[in-house]
Description:
Elements: H1 12-31, H2 44-74, H3 81-104, H4 109-112, H5 114-139, H6 145-172, H7 177-180, H8 187-215, H9 222-245, H10 252-281, H11 290-314, H12 318-355, H13 373-395, H14 402-425
Amino acid sequence: MVTLANRVSRWTLPAFALALVNFLLAEALILAGLTWPARSVSAPGTLAAVHLLVIGWLLLLMLGALFQFVPVITARALASQRLALLTLLAIEAGLAAMVGGFLAIGRHPALALALPAGGTAVLLGVLLAIFNLGVPLFGARPLALPGRMVLSGLAFLLVTVALGLSFALAFTVPPLAPYLAVLLYAVGDHALAGLGGWFTLTAMGVSYKLLPMFMLAPEERGVAGECVHVLGAGGFALAVGAGLARVWVAAEALRVAQDSGYMAIAIAVMIYLWDIVRIYRTRKRALIEAHNRAAAGAFGFLGLAAALAIGFAATHRLGAGAPLIIFLVVFGWLGGLGLTQLYKIIPFLTWLTRYGSNLGRGAVPRVQDLVRERRSYPWFALYFLGVLLGAACVLAGHAGGLRPSLALVTLATVGLLIEYWRAWRGHYAHGRRDASAPPSFVSNQRG
Ligand code: HEM
């Protein structure tokens, strides 16, 4: 029997829980002074923390969200819920091995082999996820813009993980080093494909569905949306492709192609931000809920990161500015968007799992009764303030100020985590009544 409760992807909430734990672990590593800026950008602790953030926090968060979101936009079920669980297990186990491997590089050659072993497990998890999400996505043609952006993003995810695995093999398997070591020059392309091509394109695609849905704005994005997708995907492909080719061929044409790619990405980001303002302005719902008010901070950081990247590129200091840009993208844009949207998605899924099947059988709380919006604002404000202060310190040449700023970010993360926990436990819901209609973030799922 199809009930409201089994329209929820079974592994989405566990993925979120795992992602949040990884986020806190990464923050702890930074606070402990084991990463940049206290250590170098290529220090083992920095690489471990970066991958706890991008794989442990953001990748699991995104895949967990996509396991729920893709069936909604395609009206088709995932290939399998069991595969979704396998994906989570492979990625988390792979990540744990990767972190151990990073910390062992240069000290224990045998233990460092955990790095490519873990990378292989992550690749396996990613392949399973691509199959699981690809079945509904390819089965639902013609696909709307959000679905096409997710597909483009998944292609970049594969490139990112394949490059990462090649680096890992180059570092830890000496017989392969003569063939693969040259790829280490492409670490910037690995980062751009992952943070840009995969996360940013996918987050843009998902936001093109979620923002209009929760604010009752037109979902059809017209030429603007198509431009964001084509310029974004084309720009990332050109920049990453030309960057990779330059590892082998020092042709001027490739440098021009790479710069054209960067320019296309910058234009795509500008159009996207303008379009987001349009969504807020054309909404039919007068009240903007807390998660979408706070999301403005994340959009602001996307604009700031893009502006700084343009500034650094124009002054030929992109390499020197990369750690700051990565910090802003990971904590401000992607992390900020993730934390704000979780504030809506967790109560939604909780409502469906716990109360959806009781509809019409007496008093049940409404989705909005599961949260106390005014309690979330100070945490969101503290989070974005911490990111801003950290970035300002680095820009002003006082990189040491990043750690105290990150203490604010961590405190805010813990505060939000408590609010998510309360939503999930129904802490605020006691005594509330009346749920009239099921929320729209649902779809048919099967096990
Ligand atoms: C979503 C997936 C991923 C993203 C977004 C990502 C992102 C990044 C970033 C931003 C850096 C630069 C860090 C720094 O310089 O401090 C980096 C470096 C690196 N990544 Fe990944 N990564 C991903 C997956 C992987 C995987 C699966 C592996 C496989 C083991 C891997 C292996 C590496 C290695 C070995 C380096 C260091 C390269 C060097 O210093 O020359 N990455 N990654």
